[in-house]
Amino acid sequence: MKKITVLAGDGIGPEIMNSAIAVLQAAAPKYEQEFQFDSQPFGGAGIEDSGKGLPSKTLASCQNADAILLGAIGGGVNSSWEKAEQTPEQGLLALRKALNLFANIRPISVPDALLALSPIKKEIVKGTDFIVVRELTSGIYFGKPRELQKTAAFDTCYYTETEITRIAHQAFQIAQNRNKKVTSVDKANVLATSKLWRKVVTAVSKEYPDCTLEHQLVDSCAMRIVQQPTTFDVIVTENLFGDILSDEASVLPGTLGVLPSASHSEKGVSLYEPIHGSAPDIAGQNIANPASMILSAALMLRQSFNEEKMAQAIEAAVFAVINEGIVTADLGGNAKTTEFTAAVINKIKA
Ligand code: ATP
Ligand code: MG
After folding, report:
1. Of these residues, 141, 158, 195, 336, which one is catalytic?
2. Is the CB of 257 under 6 A from ligand 1?
3. 92 and 74, same structural domain?
């Protein structure tokens, strides 16, 4: 029995989570014996339940789970959330920290089914298939001291050798199962943390002689992502650069609505979530694209439970349905969230 903590969250979170669970149930015929879902309040829903973005019972459930599915949180749906003792976003940071989810994995691919819908020219994005591995629990988002003064402010970017080493291993291990090419992104011509980053990643690469390593400065990498996205296999980078580059890369498929992500710790539980936010502008209307959440569930099957076949069946069904033109509004169609979900389930069962 696999214990899955379900954090539907806010905005479109509950709608797309319903879709993902229904698809999981369709993909695993004996799901009642295979999966045990434990739904817990989180984010704004956590505040409404017990005053905090991350209620203690929610954290306890996550710590006890074999995997976590997260919809999306926050989005200012309710202004009282911002005044809570712990806001939805603080709840998410607290959860990442408590579970030590230091490695954020974002696969970016443009399957043929999506080619026509991409905002970037077909000739450029055709065949795009890479993974951004972003360090998630250190760097300038967490470094101290930090201070906002009246007419000045400062933050601290801080990395240790240990932190860089473990994220580099993640990247090379992923590359070993793919095309064996790692692009490490930094700003080593300017930043001390980047000089250390480059040195440590190079040292780790010696343990992976089957993989090639290249270094690229973040500014030129940002250009290459839109000019030659097919030339990447695995990109590994620090927290801030990874945040920006992975959002940039998410434009390539044409919508945020098809992109899943995974966050891993060294040995503990992993968390799977769409890369987009809670999309309050379209919440409650049954028009959100649930593909991002369904594909996140497929990633969970693959990476946490080794259920490669089931994961592939779900992915194939999602892209077959898109290929048939049954798509939600973000992809220019008029399928409802529930219609798209039903079509995916029919494909899986067929
Ligand atoms: P956050 O700060 O939480 O990352 P954000 O400000 O980046 O959120 P999102 O919630 O990701 O914003 O939404 C950005 C835009 O993309 C919105 O217009 C939203 O409606 C749209 N969007 C996001 N996810 C989906 C989805 N699954 N289906 C359709 N549209 C979506
Ligand atoms: Mg965002």
Report:
1. 141
2. yes
3. yes
Q: Exposed, middle or buried by CB within 10 Å (0-12, 13-18, 19+), for 320?
A: middle
The CATH code of the domain that includes 152 is 3.40.50
What ligand 1 atom has the least distance to the C-alpha of 11? 10
Three-state secondary-structure class, residue 210: coil
Mean pLDDT (10-residue bins), the chain, 350 residues: 96 98 91 89 96 97 98 84 92 94 96 86 94 96 95 98 97 96 98 98 98 98 97 98 94 93 94 96 97 98 94 96 95 96 96
Of ligand 1's listed atoms, the one at least distance from the Cα of 293 is: 27
Assess if residue 88 is contained within a domain.
yes
**Residue ranges for the binding site for NAD(+)?**
277-289
Residue 110 lies in a domain: no
Largest CA distance in the chain: 64
Exposure of 37 in the CB half-sphere (CA atoms within 13 A): 16
How many domains are contained in the chain? 2
pTM, two decimals, is: 0.92
Out of 42, 276, 334, give the residue to mutate to test ligand 1, the one with the largest number of ligand atoms within 8 Å of its CB.
Answer: 276
User: What domain range is 219 assigned to?
Assistant: 129-251
